[in-house]
Amino acid sequence: MFHAVVITRRAMSDTPLDYASSGVDIDAEGEAVASLVGALSASVRQKGEFGAPVPLPGGFGGIIEFGDYRLALATDGVGSKLMIANELKKYQSVGIDCVAMNVNDLLCVGAEPIAFVDYIAVPKTDPHTHSILGASLAEACKRAKITLAGGETATLPGIVTELDLSGTALGWFPKGEEITGENLQVGDVLIGLPSSGIHSNGYTLVRAILQRSGDSLFEKAPFESKHPNRTIERFEEGDITLGEVLLNPTRIYVNPLIDLIKECREGDGPCEVNDLKAMAHITGGGLSNLLRLHNKFGWHIDAPLPILPEFHWLSKNGLVNQKEMHRTFNMGMGMVIAVNKEVAKSVESWLSERLPGCSRVGYVHDNGRKVTHTNPEIIFEHY
Q1: Pairing between β-strand 359-365 and β-strand 189-194 as defined by DSSP bridges
Q2: Taking each helix axis from N to C terminus, what angle separates 127-144 and 254-266, rounded to the nearest 10 degrees?
Q3: Backbone angles phi, psi at 352, to 5 degrees
Q4: Measuring CA to CA, how many Å separate 69 from each of 48, 93, 174, 178, 319?
Q5: Mean pLDDT score of the chain
Q6: Which residue from 295, 286, 378 is spatially nearest to 336, judged by alpha carbons?
């Protein structure tokens, strides 16, 4: 019996992990969302009225009419990253994650985020935890240059067993100045913006790998965590712990992207605003998010940004293949912007001065609607 148990454990440790086997099936989620959208009734607001829906490709934000302006809305949460925060009892970063996941989506349609409301659900009220969350949300709104307009705290024993945090962001842009990918052309250049870490996607797989590895969240990270494109925001003294790396907050891209959009609209930027063709937030789905930007063109990544060390650790300990890694995680690139090839160098230089690590990573092509990569294993033909 003893030997049988050992063999079983060894076999389990040799089994490659993926997002679906750890509990999240991206394809099934896509089908569920499509079913939900299909069941929703049409808006009672008619075209030309305040609040009438404005259909835009990509789905990064919901757009409605507002006179000479357009309002954009995005809703998201921190997800199961909160389970690591709950285990460590460290909540200094999760408010930043929550705001980031929403405002970064708004940027992808060219909207300037202006306000945010949060929703906190807990099994039991804890004033100390709420104080930390409040400070984290306030810091996030400062980074995103937005107003924290309100929120809701619900105490739900029996429904929730741990703290959950989500929110909604509001943004705006002038009518007719959305960024959708509609004007993309073959040869347009992709510029990648570096991530600060895992951000807030893929944590169900992260936790499965963490359990298999046997590494402790409270001890020194089992890899060199320093990287020139990011800083680990500390909540402990001494060596950087694995918990600190895994909880490093999601990067907020409002600065520099909103300044880029504004300066280009006003004629003071590195290009014309029409040269900014499309933006993609690299969240759940990884590089396949690029497919949301156009229904015909393809995308080739021939100069990927450096992979952050925690992704190497995850792949090694979970035996996760590179295609699955690039479909689940951002792999060091949290945002992609597609620009006219004639202005790519000037835009890349402008971005790099404000966010070191920004770099050209690929281009748009017409060789089939798919995402390809310098690693031939990595190819995506659907989101």
Answers
A1: antiparallel
A2: 30
A3: -65, -30
A4: 12, 33, 4, 10, 49
A5: 90
A6: 286
In this structure, what token pair is assigned to residue 178?
């959305």
Q: How far apart are CA 311 and CA 373, in angstroms?
A: 17
pTM value?
Answer: 0.89
Dist. CA 71–CA 49, nearest whole Å? 13
pLDDT digits (tens, 9 = 90+) for 211-227: 999 999 999 999 999 99
Specify burial of residue 249 (Cβ count, 10 A radius: 0-12, 13-18, 19+): buried
Least confident of 34-43, 189-198, 338-347: 34-43
Token reading at 271: 């290009």
pLDDT over 90 (residue 300) = yes
* 252: CB partners within 8 A, 6+ apart: 96, 99, 100, 103, 104, 140, 143, 144
Please report which residue ranges of the chain form alpha helices under DSSP H.
2-13, 19-22, 26-39, 81-88, 94-107, 127-144, 203-213, 242-246, 254-266, 309-318, 322-328, 344-354
Q: Which amino acid is at 174?
A: P
Q: How far, in Å, are 161, 321, 343 from residue 311 at the CA level?
A: 29, 11, 32
Vertex 140, ends 159 and 309: CA angle to 5°?
Answer: 90
Phi, psi of 287 (to 5 degrees): -65, -20
Contacts of 43 (CB under 8 A, 6+ apart): 51, 52, 53
DSSP 68-111: TEEEEEEEEE-TTHHHHHHHHT--TTHHHHHHHHHHHHHHTTTP
Predicted confidence (pLDDT) at residue 119 exceeds the cutoff of 70:
yes
d(CA 166, CA 100): 11
- Which domains are present in the chain? 46-174 (3.30.1330.10), 189-380 (3.90.650.10)
Count Cα atoms within 13 angstroms, Cβ side, for 346: 13
What is the C-alpha separation between 179 and 281, in angstroms, rounded? Answer: 13
